[in-house]
Design the sequence.
């Protein structure tokens, strides 16, 4: 009996924390919380409410390895399709893995206005790979984007980018092995006779994405926006100090 009492709170706690489908076909999320995710349609980080969950009895009869659920984005009301892996079919609950796959992922965006044409083309393809979950194709396109950057900026610019990458590491306390991989993706390793691009898992790819955005922002977007703002300031200054002369129209008669 004592063993049973000791066991029960653990079991109850486990049942409360594990995402599952109950016999009423309700999706119960981890810790009973509501799901929060970035909607692929409106790009807002919003709550999502389950609107279509497969019937409990039907799942119990077929016992599929993967279970699809539809939620509604509370911000834009669009449907969000998720795929869960079924972990266990118990008589009173169907346990799901805490990680789920978003069938439609939010597209990654970046303001490419100030980027040189070839850098923009390559980085847009990199974003397409990332949005599609092809993380190593993304890394390969980041290498090509970096090569386009180097040829645009020259050797001095390449050294500046190297410093900027070190700065990102110091600012964000990047883990040494993640940093080493990202440096190797972007710059390669000079001592390696056959420089390859290391394999990245999804978290490392996410970090690489943020690093790329920061490098491109620092290199082009920041300067482009400042130049644009200064041009506007100069225009208003010159307007105020040298108002255009009103010339009289030539007499048509
Ligand atoms: Zn939405």
Sequence:
């Amino acid at each position: 009996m004592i063993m049973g009492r000791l066991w029960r709170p653990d079991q109850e706690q486990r049942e409360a924390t594990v995402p599952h489908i109950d016999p009423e076909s309700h999706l119960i999320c981890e810790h009973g919380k509501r799901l929060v995710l970035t909607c692929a349609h409106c790009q807002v980080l919003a709550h999502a409410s389950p609107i279509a969950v497969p019937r409990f009895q039907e799942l119990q009869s077929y016992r599929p390895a993967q279970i699809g659920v539809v939620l509604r984005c509370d911000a834009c009301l669009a449907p969000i399709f998720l795929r869960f892996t079924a972990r266990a079919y118990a008589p009173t609950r169907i346990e799901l893995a805490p990680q789920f796959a978003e069938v439609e992922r939010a597209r990654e965006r970046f303001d490419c206005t100030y980027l040189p044409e070839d850098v923009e083309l390559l980085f847009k393809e990199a974003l397409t790979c990332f949005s599609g979950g092809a993380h190593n194709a993304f890394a390969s396109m980041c290498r090509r984007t970096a090569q386009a950057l180097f040829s645009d900026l020259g050797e001095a610019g390449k050294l500046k980018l190297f410093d900027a990458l070190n700065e990102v590491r110091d600012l964000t306390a990047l883990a040494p092995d993640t940093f080493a991989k990202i440096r190797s993706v972007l710059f390669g390793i000079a001592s390696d006779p056959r420089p390859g691009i290391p394999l990245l898992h999804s978290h490392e790819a996410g970090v690489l994405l943020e690093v790329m955005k920061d490098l491109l922002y620092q290199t082009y977007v920041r300067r482009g926006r400042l130049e644009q703002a200064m041009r506007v300031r100069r225009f208003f200054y010159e307007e105020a100090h040298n108002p255009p002369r009103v010339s009289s129209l030539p007499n048509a008669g």
Q: What stands out?
A: Residues 39, 41-42, 44, 46, 73, 75-76, 78 surround zinc ion (CB under 6 Å). Strands lie at 20-21, 27-28, 35-38, 45-52, 66-73, 79-90, 93-102. The chain has six helices and seven strands.
